[in-house]
Amino acid sequence: MSEAINEAEAEKAGLDPKAVQKVAGIAARLVRECEKLGIEIFGGSGGLSLRYNDEPSLDLGNLILWYKGGNVSGGCGAVHRDEEGLERGEGA
Q1: How far is it, in rounded angstroms, from Cα 83 to Cα 36?
Q2: How many domains is the chain built from?
Q3: Which of 2, 22, 42, 81 is most buried, by the most CB atoms less than 10 A from its CB?
Q4: Contact 66, 49 (CB under 8 A)
């Protein structure tokens, strides 16, 4: 997995691209570590959970951590370009 910062989007949002890159690196490391352990990161309902599925008949896996807070979306992640050429997330 590689992360690429969309600098135009970061600047439009008033964010420092270097700060966004730092957060992206943290997220990428989290994903890699979870993959090594066979853990899925699941977002939704305003929280984040870590799940391990040791029973294939279970759709969601065993809940091993629940973090309630922050802004964690479980959406599909769809994007499209707007009239300015910026990438808009789902619902935008």
Answers
A1: 40
A2: 2
A3: 42
A4: yes
Q: Read off the pLDDT of residues 16-47 as tens digits, 9 standing for 90 and up.
A: 989 999 998 998 999 899 899 888 888 776 67
- Full-model pTM: 0.67
| Contact by Cβ (8 Å): 52, 40 | yes
Domain of 16 in residue numbering reads as 1-37
**Co-location of 7 and 27 in the same domain:** yes
Residue 74 backbone phi and psi in degrees, to 5: -110, 25
Structure tokens at 82: 């707007």
The number of C-alpha atoms within 13 Å of 81 and in the hemisphere containing its C-beta is: 5
Tokens read off for 88: 């808009």
